[in-house]
Amino acid sequence: MSSKRDAEVELDANACQGIFTHCTDSIIVLDGNGVVQGCNPAARQLLGQGAESLNGRRFADLLAPESQDELTTLLWSGFTGLSDAELKLRDGARVTF
């Protein structure tokens, strides 16, 4: 890869990181098994936890048992056709995605 192309890729990566970091909407990145791979500051604030306590955990484990089935449905649907989905966290707080 040319150094010009390397610079373009790095610029794109920096732009994406800036959007991820400064977006006021919550962004949670899950792998195919529903394990948190990363989350932005807005998501950490919404969930009331730091990155170190979220990364590597199953997202479903953050939810109250009654919301875990709903999460599975939402993930399989790809959140299509939904305007808002409310889930209950283990501490009883309700969050809207």
Q: Largest sheet, if any?
A: 2 strands, antiparallel
What distance separates the N and C termini?
40 Å
Strands in their spatial order, largest beta sheet: 1-2
Query: What portion of residues belong to β-strands?
Result: 5-15%
Structure classification: alpha+beta
Helix content: 40-55%
Order of helices and strands: HEEHHHEE
How many β strands by DSSP? 4
Notes on the protein architecture:
It is a single chain. The protein is of the alpha+beta class. The radius of gyration is 16 Å and the shape is elongated. The protein is built from four helices and four strands. It is 45% helix and 13% strand. Strand 3 and strand 4 form a beta hairpin. A two-stranded antiparallel sheet has the order 1-2. Strands 3-4 form a two-stranded antiparallel ribbon.
In short:
With 97 residues, the protein is α+β, with helices and mostly antiparallel strands.
Properties at a glance:
single chain, alpha+beta, two-stranded antiparallel ribbon, 4 strands
Can you lay out the helices and strands and say which pair or pack?
Blueprint: H1 3-22, E1 28-30, E2 36-39, H2 41-47, H3 51-54, H4 65-77, E3 86-88, E4 94-96
Antiparallel strand pairs: 1-2, 3-4
